[in-house]
Amino acid sequence: MTGTAVVSTWRRVLRFVGLALLWFCLLLVTLWSTAALYFDVPNHRLRLPLAVLYIACIIVALVVVRTPHLRKSVCLIGFVIVLVWWLSLKPSNDRPWQADVAQTAWMEIQGDHVTIHNLRNCEYRSEFDYTPHWETKNVDLSQIRGVDVFITYWGSPYIAHPIVSFQFGDDDHVAFSIETRKEVGETYSAVLGFFREYELIYTVADERDVVRLRTNYRTGEEVYLFRTIAGAQWTRELFLQYARSTNQLRDHPKWYNALTRNCTTNIFQEINATGTPLAHMSRYDWRILLPGKGDEMLYESGNIETGGLSFAQLKAQAHINASARRSSREDFCRRVREGRVGYTLMTPH
What are phi and psi of 23, to 5 degrees? Predict the structure, then answer.
């Protein structure tokens, strides 16, 4: 085979591969457009008819249109139309919310003095049987000591939910849990999380609510606690950044998205917004999209206390479920930290 023939063959192969990839992408955006109509059209009765009509129009156009470029254009134009409509959907803070997300937190900041409004501190009898309490709490930024990370698993080692908790003084904590704000009757769906089904909420809570719920009342959830090496000044900046985002959500709601705006990606967005990102950690690390690998990232980058332990040893001693279940509500925060790497012995109030 001559050199010219080889070049020609490779061109045909590359052209075929390129066309295959293009059509695969068009298939994906067509499926996404159909799903967006099915899940996100406000009128529930119109969802299925519009989704069926959309995919039927695409199929008919592909059969009727003979020009290859026009076929591709039909798929692309249909996607663009749906995307423009989808992006126009507006989140709201005015919906029939479940009781545990009925209120949104907000903060008043005057120098070192911060007043937290609507801090959640539910009294649980079981996972779904609880009395919601919304409290006003005052904290002093000059007393901030550090920040801890709780990571909750419920199945896959790649999927988890992180909770960031700020320590004030010897044994006072304010926890932030970035979650979906669910309406009455809604449950979380990983699939729906990719669409405009849920609003985003920064739940500001007592650890005896947002953490103890996961260790003592939900079944199948395992919680791990890690102490970060963050100093007081950086922790202060991070807390203030969380406060700004919490206040912004109260006035300007946002959509949750399982890929781009979730419980983990938003943590890294808040960290980067301080202007001092975590040392030795790339914001483009693929594991940011897999919350279950967050503790591994923190360990490898040197951003958590390790006590000289291997990662496996550190994670084993970080498991708090047993200690949490032996604790009372009053001594919960102290008991889950006792004897763990990075924590000095704390005495009760």
Answer: -65, -35
3-state secondary structure at position 295 = helix
* DSSP string for 175-210: EEEEEEEPBTT----TTGGGTT--EEEEEEE-HHHH
The residue with tokens 């995919």 is: 55
**Range in 65-74, 104-113, 128-137, 322-331 with the lowest mean pLDDT:** 65-74
Is the separation of the CB atoms in 248 and 237 below 8 Å?
no
Retrieve residue 259's tokens. Answer: 């890929």
Return the number of other C-beta atoms located less than 10 Å from residue 43's C-beta.
Answer: 8
CA distances from 58 to 61, 62, 72 (A): 5, 6, 10
pLDDT at residue number 346: 46
Q: Residue 202 and residue 242: Cα distance in Å, rounded?
A: 9
DSSP symbol at 263: T
Outline where 88-171 has alpha helix (H): none
Q: What is the pTM of this model?
A: 0.88
The token duo for 53 is 């009509």
* C-beta of residue 264 within 8 angstroms of C-beta of residue 288: yes
| pLDDT-based confidence at residue 121 (cuts at 50, 70, 90) | very high
Give pLDDT, residue 2. 65
Query: Exposed, middle or buried, 225 (CB in 10 Å: 0-12/13-18/19+)?
Result: buried
* Domain ranges within the chain, ordered by starting residue: 3-87, 99-335
Pick from 107, 99, 95: nearest CA to 133? 99
Question: DSSP letter at 228?
Answer: B
- Nearest alpha carbon to residue 178 among 114, 131, 242: 242
Can you spell out the DSSP letters for 309-347?
A: --HHHHHHHTB-HHHHHHS-STTHHHHTTTT-TT-----
Q: Identify the H or E element spanning 54.
A: helix 44-64
Give the C-alpha separation, 336 to 319, whole Å: 9
